[in-house]
Specification:
The protein has 696 residues and is α+β, with helices and mostly antiparallel strands. It has 22 helices and nine strands.
């Protein structure tokens, strides 16, 4: 460690490392860039699900290299003859576009207020669908009669609108995230200069992480999309800036002890590297466990974020110290730390006063805090999961409103029918399907490659419990038939909900176990890790409860996305443990001279400011996820934001110190952290000796 610290802070190598980082990052950004992923039809379907098997069978049918665009013409009153004539003319014009063909005649509704027709769009690429649907919508707008609505929905319309709402979204996310981080760093350091260095380093880390993660995912054949890179950026900025705050805080403390800034950074780095490494490893392991998910996009997100944490920690612990020592201590201006400031004591700080207050009545503080957290968690009892297609967007796009308009004039099941695919006898499958009470009609669809499609219209309301039960009944009815699978939107939603429940049952306990193991190795204790993991778990449930109240009573969400509880748990537990690691690692260090009880209070006083700054920054960064257009991402951002604030301001500040003080030496069992309380630790003393070769 001494050799590494000496290299990172030496006059020559610090400049070399900083230049290599800037030039290397530039080459990665300019020449390698971010990889792209061509969406596969099965990307959104859980592994091993019946709906995924149905999609795989459907690939044998003709026309699987195209998308359907459903055009909806409607009025509040009945369509006129001129309306229908206009609609037919616009459909003919749309069919003349490259790659577009008319898939069927214009079909009026029974109430006469709407008519639909299907266009076939060649190709399945997102960009192709977006551009083609944009052209179709432009044609539909030409000469449209007053009062007539002409909209595009169907698979092509939904894909096009999804691509459209993400256009520029990641750029806005990155810009907003960088702005939030910059403002909070300026407030934290109260310096017009210092914030530029960590922001630049973390910004480079973000770009390198995006490139590295997407290329790793591409190499492994894993699915990802624009939301993956968006969440990755937020995580890298949040975690990277947290680590930077910790390092710079120790660096500033050491500058108050010595005139040599390189020696100060060497000491700060040695006293920070183990904590940051332990934190990064814990977060990495937690995120990596998501690859066990059945949902392809969730698996890709977990691996991408795990790569991002490694990159962020590496940049902060290698590039940042080298960059900082390239400049004099003047970068802290106007509050330049100098050895003359060493007399300042933390006993006058807010955090010391809080620590002393908790120490006087730890049982009262622990009990009161737990009561508040449990009260916050109670709304979880009414929590619901599962978003319909129309509920997944912050702002409802045209394809969704068009689909809702079709549902008003046509039977519910005909809007988005269930599809059964089979390699067996179609007559036998049809007979089995008609035994299900919820089935309204069955008609043959496409045939080819030994596969037959059967289009099933249900009597049930889409996205209802009755629809889910109808899918289960259909699957039971065809279970004994060879290679027969039930697909469609309802089937996919049911499979996603069941896969998400399975993921939570498997991954949540696994993450807790892995985090517990990592803390046990780090702290060499059994009791402290149990306490810390328990407090983080309580924080998660409390933040989920508060968020559910906010969603249902203020924002207007009626349920969480199926993926939200799992992803919020992973990020909140993995990142929330960070602050506890920062606190107890400093307590171990302080206990060498002051004993376990005083060490916890001194640790709170020493780390209170930097951890609170880091927590507020991380909460603000995750709140920025609301910039993206998907409800699921906004929900994840809000839950993590509230959870991090609870963890930083309540759990780490009051509950953990109170429990540690109540347990005393038992908190560290079987480790005896205060054994050398009246002697100076040999290792620490050696670390504080002047180091040769380090010049100011």
């Amino acid at each position: 460690m001494h050799a590494v610290a000496r290299t990172l802070t030496s006059r020559v190598w610090s400049v070399v490392i900083a230049l290599i980082a800037v030039l290397g990052s530039g080459l990665v950004i300019g020449l390698v860039g971010v990889a792209t992923h061509d969406a596969h039809p099965t990307d959104g379907y859980p592994n091993g699900s019946d709906s995924r098997a149905a999609v795989q069978l459907a690939q044998s049918l003709p026309g699987t290299d195209s998308l359907a665009a459903v055009v909806v013409f409607s009025r509040t009153d009945k369509l006129t003859a001129d309306d229908l004539s206009y609609a037919k003319g616009r459909l003919t014009a749309s069919g003349s576009l490259p790659g577009v063909s008319v898939g069927g005649p214009l079909v009026p509704s029974k109430d006469g207020t709407a008519a639909v027709a299907t266009l076939t769009v060649a190709g399945t690429a997102t960009v192709t669908a977006r551009d083609t649907v944009t052209e179709i919508r432009s044609l539909l707008a030409e000469g449209r009669p007053v009062g007539l609505s002409a909209q595009v929905t169907g698979p092509a319309g939904i894909i096009a609108d999804l691509a459209k709402v993400f256009d520029g979204a990641n750029f806005r996310l990155l810009g907003t995230t960088a702005l939030v981080v910059a403002l909070l760093l300026i407030v934290t350091y109260r310096s017009p200069v210092l914030w530029l260095i960590p922001l630049t380093v973390v910004g480079l880390a973000d770009q390198v992480a995006g490139s590295a993660a997407t290329h790793v995912l591409t190499g492994l054949g894993m699915a990802f999309d624009q939301s993956t890179t968006g969440i990755l950026s937020v995580l890298v900025f949040g975690a990277g800036t947290d680590y930077a705050l910790l390092l710079i805080s120790r660096y500033r403390d050491e500058l108050r002890r010595t005139d040599d800034r390189r020696q100060a950074m060497a000491r700060a780095w040695r006293r920070t590297v183990e904590t940051v490494t332990s934190s990064a490893v814990t977060v990495f392991v937690g995120l990596l466990s998501i690859v066990l998910s059945l949902v392809p996009s969730t698996r890709g997100l977990g691996l991408a974020c795990a790569v991002g944490v490694v990159v962020a920690a590496t940049f902060v612990m290698v590039v940042l110290p080298a960059a900082l020592v390239c400049f004099g201590r003047w970068i802290f201006w106007p509050r330049v730390p100098r050895p003359a400031d060493a007399g300042l004591t933390e006993k006058r700080s807010l955090w010391r006063r809080i620590g002393d207050g908790v120490a006087r009545r730890p049982a009262l503080f622990a009990a009161a805090t737990l009561v508040v957290l449990v009260a916050c968690a109670l709304p979880v009892l009414g929590l619901k999961t599962g978003l319909t297609q129309s509920q997944q967007f912050i702002r409802t796009p045209e394809a969704i409103t068009a689909g809702e308009r079709v549902a008003q004039s046509f039977s519910a099941g005909s809007v988005d029918p269930t599809r059964v695919y089979t390699t067996g006898d179609p007559a036998s499958v049809t007979k089995a399907i008609t035994t299900v009470a919820a089935v309204d009609s069955v008609r043959p669809g496409a045939t080819g490659g030994g596969v037959t499609e059967l289009v099933v219209t249900l009597r049930t309301t889409p996205s209802s419990a009755d629809s889910q039960q109808a899918i289960r009944d259909l699957r039971t009815a065809v279970a004994g038939l060879p290679e027969t699978h039930v697909g469609g939107t309802e089937a996919r939603a049911l499979d996603t909900a069941e896969a998400s429940a399975r993921d939570r049952a498997l991954i949540l306990p696994l993450i807790l176990g892995l985090v517990l193991l990592a803390l046990t190795v780090l702290l060499r204790s059994f009791v402290a890790p149990l306490v810390l993991v328990g407090t983080v778990l309580v924080t998660y449930v409390s933040s989920l409860g508060l968020s559910w109240l906010l969603f249902t009573k203020v924002i207007g969400f009626t349920s969480l996305d199926d993926s939200t509880p799992l992803l919020a748990f992973v990020f909140l537990v993995a990142l929330g443990v960070d602050y506890n690691i920062f606190l107890v690692a400093r307590a171990v260090e302080e206990a060498r001279e002051h004993g376990a009880r005083e060490a916890m209070i001194r640790s709170l006083a020493a780390t209170g400011g930097v951890i609170t700054s880091a927590g507020v920054l991380l909460a603000a960064v995750f709140a920025v996820l609301g910039v993206l257009p998907l409800v699921a991402l906004a929900q994840i951002g809000v839950i993590i934001c509230l959870g991090v604030l609870l963890d930083t301001l309540v759990v780490r500040t009051v509950l953990v110190p109170a429990l540690a003080l109540l347990l005393g030496d038992a908190f560290w069992w079987p480790r005896h952290v205060g054994r050398a309380r009246h002697t100076v630790d040999v290792t620490l003393a050696a670390a504080d000796l002047p180091e040769t070769g380090l010049r100011r």
